[in-house]
Amino acid sequence: MYQYNEIDQTLIEERVTQFRRQTERFLKGEIAPDHYRTLRLMNGLYIQTHAPMLRVAVPYGLLSSKQLRKLAHIARTYDKGYCHFTTRQNVQFNWPELAQTPDILAELATVQMHAIQTSGNCMRNTTTDHLAGICKDEIIDPRPFCEIIRQWTSFHPEFAYLPRKFKIAVTAAAQDRAATQLHDIGLHLVKNAADEIGFKVFVGGGLGRTPIIGQVIRPFLEQKHLLSYLEAILRIYNLYGRRDNKYKARIKILVKEEGLEKFTQLVEAEWLRIRDELELTAERIQEIQQHFVPPAYQAAAASDLSFNTHLTEDAAFAKWVKYNTLEHKIPGYRAVFISLKAPEVPPGDVTDSQLDAIADLADQYSFGEIRSTHRQNLILGDVQQADVYVLWQKLTALNLATPNIGTVTDIICCPGLDFCELANAGSIGVTKEINTALDDMDYIHDLGDIKINFSGCMNGCAHQSVGNIGILGVDKKGTEWYQITLGGSSENNAAIGERLGPAVDRNQIKDAILDILKVYIKQRLSEDESFLATVSRIGLEPFKEQVYASH
Amino acid sequence: MQVIKDKKIIENTWQFIADDQVLPATGDISVSLTRWQQEKQQLVQRDSLLGVRLDPSEEVADLAEDLPKLALLELNFGLYTDGRGFSQARQLRHQYGYQGEVRAVGAFMLDQVYYLVRVGVNGFELENPQHLTWALESMEDFSYSYQPSTM
After folding, report:
1. Chain A residue numbers touching B135 (CB-CB < 8 A)
2. Contacts of A324 (CB under 8 A, 6+ apart)
3. Contacts A–B by Cβ distance under 8 A
4. DSSP secondary structure code for residue A482 in this structure
5. Which structural domain, as residue segments, surrounds residue B48?
6. Closest chain B residue to A234 measured between Cα atoms?
7. Among A288, A322, A340, where does a domain finish?
8. pLDDT digits 0-9 by tens, A361-397
9. Which among B93, B111, B118 is the top mutation candidate for probing chain A, defined by the most A β-carbons within 10 Å of its own β-carbon?
10. Total count of domains within chain B
11. Is residue B68 assigned to a domain?
């Protein structure tokens, strides 16, 4: 993975010094609270219901074991012994003290980590496919381009005070696992007719209050023009994006109101003006690619026979392998998911001791690297199949092996009313209820691939509008209600879910979800017809009837 | 009043004349874009340096042909969160090759000075004298940058 050079390291250390000074001046009353608010947000620091929340960047979801141990240390020393992985591959601490945050950032800087631009109306952490570099269906490793974008977005002097936040996602795989069409800019690495690899550029996607699927602004962009094209889009957005209403300030609204054609004209005119000066050289790309050379895979890994023996002899292991591991592009290796969705645990939460243990497992079995996924789980990406059985046993002992990846209990969930001052309704409690009701693993597995996304408010941090089942917490005169949508997807067939009907109250939401699952089981043509396919075939009516008839 | 120009604290020699104010007989003045467009002919007859104050919603392109006549471009920050001034500065320096003073005025934040310098702003009008020193210090916050800079 990318290793900082002296420039990278100096920059993040200087940022800590700058933020320490800003915090000290604020605490002395020398910086106005609204000014400090803007400055702290650019350093990942929110003030939440109970305490500040610090969001730490995990660039494109890649972590070293050393970094994981540092996160464990911070959770232990400055927080309540745990942290939370987000839907954008980042990490959040929910209980730091404001005055201690510069110290936390200084600790992070020692392991090449930071919280820069993880919040605020600026360019955020770039995300990518959690299987980048190891999956079979990609044409090139997208991570070097993510790193190039990381550097370009970091401390960009012109685009730090945008109309609204700005998110970029990159994928190079046939299957879009990075929800790229739901980002302000989505980049697909594709081949053109001449077999050259470049970018298909999507713009104007986004979730939140007005979910919109991104549109193609350029079908093919040469690699050397990546940064000039991004810069052109950002400049047009910075100058012309709406600033009069924060709910209409994302680039998706600008694209919608101007129309794709006019927006494209503006961008391309700007791009032609600047592209020669911002050209990315082949040497520069290669230099960054050197940081992502494949690890020393063992050719003998594929000759292992024990993996298949365990699969036949141990049904529990076989079930876990089916749900929580994936084939690797290198024969004899597998990608292993670490489920952060144990039934009794808030989705995405992990304790300090679990983090330390995962770091050890990564060192022992997966070249010391860990990935975070946008469904709030972790991955050990490069595990020899001969090690998978013992790894499973160790993960089981750590409560990190619930075989539910991609199933109905692999719920994406925001922190909700329990932690977040924006939330209208609780999410973690309802998630626990749903999990408790779905305690039969066989039933869960029978339901197959169903993605539930659950947000506690319209801001939609858990991307409920693209969940196969979306749940949105709303406030009605001080009580918690839940709106349900069906049929959303963040993958290649990206779609915004359709509203099922009126919101249901706190006492009905769990049963409503169970009803929806029952209708699916009853209506599906076979076990092979996924929930999404069934919804698209039969429509919402049968689900409506069941949910609203019984309540 | 003191201002910063080219990383030095100096006495301000400029005066902004609001649209409803009479032009003073002498002295370097800046005016709004509207006034500039309406009174350009008279203004260029003055024996003084001239400047224009641009609001965030105004287009740098509307001044393109007049830039050689102007020694000062003021970017007027209405709200510190409104980042359009950053792109206006960049356009002035980069797209139009403007060589005169680009000065930040209005409601920008002290902690925005570093980035403003990088997009080409070389003059700063700050109300609080203590902030002049702090602003100069903050110009040295970072030793490197990831992006090409106009300055």
Report:
1. none
2. A336, A337, A339, A401, A403, A404, A405
3. 84
4. E
5. 2-138
6. B87
7. A288
8. 999 999 999 999 999 999 999 999 999 999 999 999 9
9. B111
10. 1
11. yes
